[in-house]
Amino acid sequence: MTDDELIRKNKRTGLIVLVVLFVMVGLSFASVPLYNLFCRTTGFGGTTQVATQLPDKSEIIDRVITIRFDANKARDLPWDFKPEIVSMKVKLGERGFANFISRNKSDQAVTGMAIYNVTPLKVGKYFHKIQCFCFDQQTLQANQSVNMPVLFFVDPKMNEDKSMDDVKTITLSYSFFKAESKKLDKAVDDYYEDKPLTY
User: Are the C-beta atoms of residues 155 and 170 closer than 8 Å to each other?
Assistant: First the structure.
């Protein structure tokens, strides 16, 4: 092999290495948004869907699902946080409405933020929320109590998915954390990495 051929070969190898490096750097920056899009699209990790309207009444299916409501909070958040009711039954495609009650037990304003998921995790792609307080900061004044509504439906298409035949109950779980806290940051990171939440 001549010197010219060796130089061309080294340049080509160097160019390939640079292209691979740029692609890897680009993918590292795109990985979080792509993962979030993947979760929202597939319901992976219990990620629910967001809808702007309910299905048409003609789409409602007689199959009934029990929806359980679960409320948790971090120890350093001085709030009471609980669902108004612990469960309800809805037909597929039917509007569901739940109310969570939060009360600030401290003598000063406190801001919190909730993250959520549904279990079993596989139903995330069929659970649609129309209105929700999650991922928005909520500020409660001293001793203030507020209602936090959730409007949702379970997609009638779930009835066509044979892997959902065993689903009789769905649990919608919310976990509140103090806003701008390390616990919240960790919980959000764990949420997107599909890890169990710690309080």
Answer: no
Residue carrying the six token digits 């597929």: 92
User: Strands 49-50 and 61-73, how do they pair?
Assistant: unpaired
171 exposed, middle or buried (CB, 10 Å; 0-12, 13-18, 19+)? middle
CA distance linking residue 167 with residue 122, whole number of Å: 9
CB 189 within 8 A of CB 168: no
Q: What is the block-wise mean pLDDT of the chain (199 residues), using blocks of 10 residues?
A: 72 71 52 40 48 79 96 93 96 95 95 90 92 84 95 94 96 89 62 46
Helix axes 182-192, 3-42, angle to 10 degrees: 100
**Tokens matching residue 170:** 């769905």
At which residue do the structure tokens 């769905």 appear? Answer: 170
Residues 6 or more apart whose Cβ sits within 8 Å of residue 118? 46, 48, 124, 127, 170, 171, 172, 173
